Structure to design on (197 residues):
């Protein structure tokens, strides 16, 4: 799980303790007969501004610039690549364990909220260092797949095939990856992403 429930009394004195609230919305389903046309979705929102360690954290993270995206589009047009946008679901929660102690008061609407706090085991969206930790993880993943970083242009990665020709180009924007490649290379890349995340 992403958190561990502990009694409020067991939380250390001077703990990094933040509040949260629930945000609910009604989602309209698709035409699938097996899926209800309406469903209630709840999102827990952390009050990251209350994080008493936020000033000490590494929060730097880069996103692909317009220049990087133009390069991706240019290379894709030149090589006749297909362009796909890949969204990694709950990316921040897949960036490994929380490296510090953060305790969260569950929303008042949450069942069993009284007398219990959540000790975070992973960093969710809303905390200052979550983006940086995710960037480190996804960069390492791309480098393990033999992508190379384009020097001087943040968050653009190239991949070369055995003939040393460019066969894929990726631009990273937070938890989305814009990719240009042939259909088969894109399918392979999507499978590798799914197996890891």
């Amino acid at each position: 799980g992403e958190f561990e429930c502990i009694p409020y009394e067991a939380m250390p004195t001077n703990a990094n303790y933040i509040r949260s609230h629930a945000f609910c919305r009604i989602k309209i389903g698709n035409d699938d007969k097996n899926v209800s046309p309406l469903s209630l979705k709840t999102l827990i929102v952390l009050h990251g501004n209350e994080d008493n360690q936020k000033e000490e954290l590494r929060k730097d993270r880069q996103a692909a610039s317009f220049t990087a995206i133009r390069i991706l589009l240019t290379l894709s047009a030149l090589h006749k690549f297909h362009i796909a946008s890949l969204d990694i679901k709950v990316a921040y929660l897949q960036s490994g364990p929380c490296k510090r102690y953060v305790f969260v008061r569950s929303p008042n609407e949450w069942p069993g909220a009284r007398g219990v706090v959540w000790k975070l085991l992973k960093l969710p969206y809303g905390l200052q260092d979550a983006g940086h930790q995710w960037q480190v993880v996804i960069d390492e993943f791309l480098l393990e797949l033999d992508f190379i970083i384009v020097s001087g242009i943040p968050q653009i990665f190239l991949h070369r095939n055995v003939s040393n020709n460019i066969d894929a180009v990726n631009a990273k924007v937070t938890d989305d990856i814009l990719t240009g490649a042939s259909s088969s290379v894109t399918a392979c890349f999507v499978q590798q992403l799914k197996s890891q995340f």
Q: What stands out?
A: The radius of gyration is 20 Å. Residues 130-144 form the longest helix (15 residues).
